[in-house]
Structures are given as structure tokens and as C-alpha cells.
Specification:
alpha/beta, Serine Threonine Protein Phosphatase 5, Tetratricopeptide repeat, 6-stranded mixed sheet, 3-stranded parallel sheet
Amino acid sequence: MIAKDEEKNIARCIESYKDVVDEIIVVDTGSKDKTVEIAKALGAQVYHYQWNNNFADAKNYALERAKGDWIIFLDADEYFVKNTAYNIIPLIRRLAYRYKAIACKMKNIDYVDGKLLDEITHIRIFRRDRNIRYKNSIHECLFYKVENKTVAAFLVDEEELLIHHEGYSFSNRGEKSKRNLELLLQQLDKASEDPSIYHYISDCYFGMEDWEQSIKYARMFVGSGARLVGYNVKPRQNIIESMLRLKCNVDDILEEIYAGVDEFPRHPAFHFYLANMMYDLKRYDDAYKEYEKTLQLQKDYRDIEINSIVSNLYHIYYYMGIIASFRNDNEDALSRFVESLRWEKLRHPDSLSRLLHIIKDFPEEDIIMLLNSLYNKEDEVDLDFIVTTLTRVTLPKVFAYYSALRIKNYGSNDLTVVYMLLANKQYDKTFGIAQKCLIEDPNNKTFEKIALISAFISRGVEYLNELEEYFSQPMQSFLKAMLKRENLIFSQEYKKDYLDFVLFLMLFGNRELLDRGIRLAHCFGRNSVYIELGNLFFVQERYAEALKLYQHYINLEGLNKEEIVAQIYAEGICWYKLREYEKAVASLIEAYDLGYRHNEIYEFLRWSVDKLLKGSELDSRCRDIISRA
């Protein structure tokens, strides 16, 4: 290997293969840390090389010092995993002579958070042959000098040989890209002979978030007709992802995606892009089919092109879960959200929230059993994630179980304690802690809401009198209105505080208190608060209550059709989620007749039509609208 300042990585690299090699050669290019010392301690022969900004030169210098028949050439931040290096010698012994190299799967891991970035196939093992050398000062690659072509390699399954690479991270992508770009631009005049330079420049600009330049150079590579082993899909991906970030015309982006599908029909990435576009266009059935196609292609994928779909599987299952929820197929939605969490249990809290909404009516012990199958209840990070997510879902007994577990195993903080006490309906104790915390920090709006709710439920109006001076101006206004001390008109600036307050009442209050909170909506004077209040209940999947709020808004006097059409559509979706399909279709058709033409209305009508009385007037009209989509 060649190395510089790799004291954190070099031991792991060498130890992953040292038991199967005859010599270890390290070419140091100017380390100032303990790289050389560690390498020597592990039995390496260390040579020093004057760095000349050329990775190929340094690697070829290392090759010239090797004596064995075969070479293993890893970077210091790469290593064989699962003891697969022990398979190397048996592989070599059974290899046909025509192969000059062995290629295997490499998984790129973000060294900051340990997440998988992508997978690619690389040659890291090859015959010692004076005609096999590296070329290119940066992004160096092996070539066969006699014929000036790539080295023929035997592809090994990842179960037999697998490398992890931890040299990249999203956190430093821009910094590395800028460094590499300086070297690549010096070679730009050679790009007509070696178009791969265009691709690598595109990659650098992508890492630096210069989307226009990334597209420019990616198109130059594609236009050259050149091929780049393992990276042929990447220029297309750079173009698509840059266009998405630039918010380019949808048809232009789709044209690029379909070009990728046609050029790489077995690669899952382009069907993934297509699925995401269909979802954004609210063509949900098409999106679902493309996600399914992506999963099937990923399952069957055996090619050598770079592939980042594994790192996006949680995303695929998540959106399939959402679409299944839209269809009222809770069984499918549940399985999709569970699968999403199996792939990524902490990065996507909404997956857990949506799963909990689906299973909220299950027995508490079944919910806990499912959560324990996804999370380690003995792990502090997992526990904190569960507890935090449960603060946004009405599952008090489940919340109390995990809060108590969190406090028992890792100690408590005031917020965890008050949430647990609220879940257990111990309102007097809740108020005591919330009062103390609010007096210490009057700007803490969470404790403010908890103090007010716990005081109301425990019917301790005197508690409220004690704390009123510590409440913010919006909360003082809400309190006065709920106690009917005076008729108030709320400032529009209070709207966010009000919606947060109602959400707290929904999650931790009782029915009476929530109804009193909802009635405060009339104090805003303007009508839009009913829409936002309806949306709040809708997100919590409390569709009957959301429906009443949307209908209240629709029935207000003085509104024109533009002001109510979206709420009539929302009314239809509430009926749909309540499985009142005739009422749902009636509302959706009314919204359609008033001019609502967004794609999702056709999807919901399609999903409802088979549940209508066949041949009825509603059925006929529904089918007529669907046929025009």
C-alpha cells in the first residue's frame, strides 16, 4: 500500500490480510504521525517516496518492490471483512490462467456515522506482472501496458471476498472534492484522450454542490462515448441528481431518467429515481410499481457498476408504506414500515410514527413486543428514540413502559419524568415538577404547556393562578379564554403556539380539555385556523375530528369556491380514510367539479370505484372522471 498519516487506519488494514501474505510493503509518502512505526511493528517493509502529486507513480514504485507472484493492493482505509482474506489463496489456486486479477465487492462506509454509502466492484488482487501498472495521477486505475486496456478479472461473490472502505463521508465531501478538482483541472487538456477526466471533474463539482458544472462535465463524458469500468452509471446519476437539486423542468428530468433506464436496464438506480418522481407527481400506483421494480432489480443485481440502492432501501420501504396507507391497506403498510425500520431504525422517525399510528389499537403488549424486535431496549440511544417518538403518538401505556425503562437504566431528566407521569395520569406530581422547571426557565414552552394541562386536569385552578405570571403572552391568553374570564381576539402571531398547545392537549389531555382547546379557534377571527387545525388532526390520523373542522370551514359564510375547493378535497380524503367510500367519492367529485385537478384525486377515485354500487350514478361519474386522467 501507499500511505500518509494513516495511523488511525493502517493497523486494521494490515491485520485484515497479514496472515495470508508473504511480505507487506508500505510506501510512505510523507507521514508526520505514527504510520511508519505501526506498519513496521506489524512486519511491513517501509519505503519512503517523495510525493509528486501522482498516485499512480507512488503505487507503481510500490509494485516494483514486490517479489510475490500475486499482489494485494489496498488503500490504508480499506480492509477485508468477516475474515474473507483467508479465501484469497484458495481462490488463486483454482483460478483459470487467463485471468490476471480478482475483482470483489467493496462497500463504502461513511466513517462519521458508519452508514453504508454505496457498493462497487474493484480489482484489489492481481498477478505481479511488469505489464500491469497503474495510470492517472488521481483516480488511478490498473491497465495492461502491452495492449493498453483494462486488466481481465475474475469476479468473486461477496460471501467469499468483501472489502469495506471508510475513506469518505458526506461531512467532508466538499473539502475532498475541492482538493481533487485542482489536480484534475491540470489534466483537462488530456481529456480528449482520456474522457474519464470529464467524469471525475463532474464528481468533484457534484461534491462541491456546483450542480451546473457537474451536469456540464457529466454530459461531456456521456457525449464522448467512453466507458469507465464500474462507473458508467455515475455520470447519468450526477446529471439527474443535479437537475433535481436545480429544480429543473420535470419533463427534462424524466427524459434523463428514462435514458438511464434504457441504457442500464438491470441497474436499480434509475427505477428508484423514476419511483421518486412518480411519487412527487402524486402518481402513487406508478410509484409503487417502480419501487417494487427497484427492489426486484436490487435483489437480482450482479453487475459491477457502483450501486447506492442498499443505502436507500429504508427510503423505498418507507414510501411504499405511505402509499399502502393511502390505499387503506394497513397490513401492507405495516410490513413496509417495519422493513424500513429494519434497514434504518434511527434516521427516519416518521417511519416509526406511522407504524405506531397503524398499530395504536393493538394490545399494548403486542406493540411493545414489536418495538423490542426492532430496537434494543437496553440501548440508551434506541430507548431515547422510542421515547421521543412516543411523545407524538397517543399510546400512554406504551410510553409509560419505555419512559420507566429509560429512567431505570440511564437515570432521569425532568422532561422524561413529567412525560412518564403524564402518561400514567399522575397530574398532581406532573404539575409539581413542571411548575419547578417553568419557574427556573420561564421560556421553556414545553413545561409551560405541561404545567397548564396538568393543572387543568387536576382541577387545580389555584395552581394556574400561581403560575400565570410565568406563562408567555399567548399562553396567558389561552388560559383566560378557557377559563372564560373575558372574550378575547387572539393575534395571528399566536397561531403556531395555539396549534402546538392543541397537539399537547390531544396527546396528553382528556376529551373535555381538548374540546375546550378546539373552541378557542373562534378567537382568531380569521377562518384559516380551522384548516390548520383540521390538518393537525389529519396528521394524527384522527380523521373524524379533522372532517368536522374541514366541514366547519366549508360552511362558513362569504367564502368563494377557490377558498373551499382544497377543503372539500380534504373532506373526501377523510371520508376515504374512514372507509365511507360513497361519501368520499361524492366529496372528491364535488372538488373535481370545482376545478381540483391534482393527480392524487384520480388515484383516490381509482381506489374507491370498486367499492361503489356498480351502475349507480356515482359509479358512472367516478369512472368517467378516471377515464379522463
